């Protein structure tokens, strides 16, 4: 009885200490909530996280700015009513820096690119829209290439040269995506957190024909390391025998270019052999259908890219053929829809090498 009373007294004392401290900081209880998060930093040490939520974010105090942390980084919603713990995502935002470049065209700026800009691109550390014409109001970077599918190779080669010249030290990884590709940046950063940007590597949905080591689908998006970009900028961008400057399929030609530079195409599958990069729309990916046309492209297991929910990683990274309206659907289902009473814990899905 004495031990029980003593334990109860200690718990009440600690609880009162927390309550008094919270009240002392703000003078009110309504702007605080306490969450129990486990694990912290991928280990099994539980901890209590206490952060302030305020509806007035125009002139935040230093205390509010400190407690909000990630809400003040690009792409994180300050006014959100969600009480998710984003400490890990914020840490990866700072330590796994990704520069995104989006392949678009003058006619697609207001049809497609604007919706990428308004959704997932906000979560890139650096974002550059590449077109054949410069547009200072959007803005876009104009490269010396004609429009048309047959000239996507020229756009791609010049885009990576632009990143090498202007953004090499601003990021660790460099992502190429189309203006109808949707990318879950938090999942991409988690995936890349297990990789070394100082090694000549790149990742995406691997296709096996045309290039000896395979190549990454352009529609699914692919990401290259800083060392891969350095090799391209220093050796490949001015050497047409290594890196074709136009014509051909963009993803095939850039894949062949990287192979010539000694850059290794690695798997994008998770630890359970489920797909993370997808060259098709999400509604197609979740259907358990078999597509014979994909057999010759399937680098991973020769079964034509198995589809269905059970074959898609819980930390899927990208989908292609996402229409402008579906961009916002994806935003809702990923960043707003919640199941009440369910706390999602981080999973370890990266492949251990």
Topology:
Layout: H1 2-26, E1 32-37, E2 47-52, H2 62-68, H3 87-95, E3 98-103, H4 109-118, E4 126-131, E5 141-142, H5 152-167, E6 173-178, E7 182-183, H6 185-192, E8 201-203, E9 206-207, E10 215-216, E11 222-225, H7 226-236, H8 250-260, E12 264-266, H9 282-285, E13 318-319, H10 324-335
Parallel strand pairs: 3-4, 3-6, 4-5, 8-12
Antiparallel strand pairs: 1-2, 6-11, 7-13, 8-11, 9-10
Helix pairs in contact: 4-10, 5-7, 5-8
Q: What do you see in this structure?
A:
With 353 residues, this protein is α/β, with parallel strands linked by helices. The protein is 32% helix and 14% strand. It contains ten helices and 13 strands. It has helices at residues 2-26, 62-68, 87-95, 109-118, 152-167, 185-192, 226-236, 250-260, 282-285, 324-335; strands at 32-37, 47-52, 98-103, 126-131, 141-142, 173-178, 182-183, 201-203, 206-207, 215-216, 222-225, 264-266, 318-319. The strands form four sheets. It has a seven-stranded mixed β-sheet with strand order 5-4-3-6-11-8-12. Strand 3, helix 4 and strand 4 form a beta-alpha-beta unit. The N and C termini lie far apart (53 Å). Mean pLDDT is 77; it is low at 1-76.
């Amino acid at each position: 009885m004495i031990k029980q009373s003593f334990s109860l007294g200690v718990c009440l004392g600690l609880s009162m200490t927390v309550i008094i401290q919270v009240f002392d900081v703000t003078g009110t209880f309504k702007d605080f909530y306490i969450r129990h998060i486990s694990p912290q930093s991928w280990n099994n040490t539980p901890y209590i996280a206490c952060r302030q939520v305020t509806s007035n974010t125009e002139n935040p105090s230093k205390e509010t700015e400190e407690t909000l942390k990630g809400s003040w980084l690009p792409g994180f919603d300050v006014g959100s009513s969600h009480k998710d713990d984003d400490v890990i995502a914020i840490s990866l935002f700072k330590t796994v820096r990704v520069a995104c470049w989006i392949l678009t065209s003058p006619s697609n700026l207001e049809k497609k690119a604007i919706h990428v800009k308004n959704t997932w691109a906000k979560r890139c550390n650096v974002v550059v829209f590449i077109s054949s014409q410069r547009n200072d109001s959007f803005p876009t970077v104009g490269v010396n290439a004609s429009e048309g599918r047959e000239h996507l190779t020229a756009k791609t080669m010049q885009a990576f040269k632009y990143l090498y010249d202007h953004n090499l030290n601003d990021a660790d990884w460099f992502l190429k995506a189309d203006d109808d590709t949707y990318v879950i940046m938090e999942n991409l950063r988690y995936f890349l957190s297990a990789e070394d940007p100082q090694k000549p590597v790149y990742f995406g949905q691997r296709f096996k024909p045309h290039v000896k080591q395979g190549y990454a689908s352009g529609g699914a998006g692919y990401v290259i390391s800083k060392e891969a970009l350095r090799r391209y900028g220093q050796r490949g961008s001015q050497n047409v025998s290594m890196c074709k400057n136009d014509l051909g399929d963009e993803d095939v030609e850039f894949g062949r270019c990287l192979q010539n530079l000694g850059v290794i195409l690695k798997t994008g599958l998770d630890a359970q052999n489920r797909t993370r990069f997808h060259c098709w729309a999400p509604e197609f990916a979740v259907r358990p259908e078999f597509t014979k046309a994909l057999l010759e492209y399937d680098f991973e297991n020769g079964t034509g890219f198995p589809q269905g929910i059970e074959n898609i990683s819980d930390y899927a990274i990208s989908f292609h053929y996402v229409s402008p309206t579906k961009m916002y659907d994806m935003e809702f289902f990923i960043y707003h829809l919640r199941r009440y009473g369910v706390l999602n814990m981080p999973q370890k899905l990266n492949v251990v090498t």
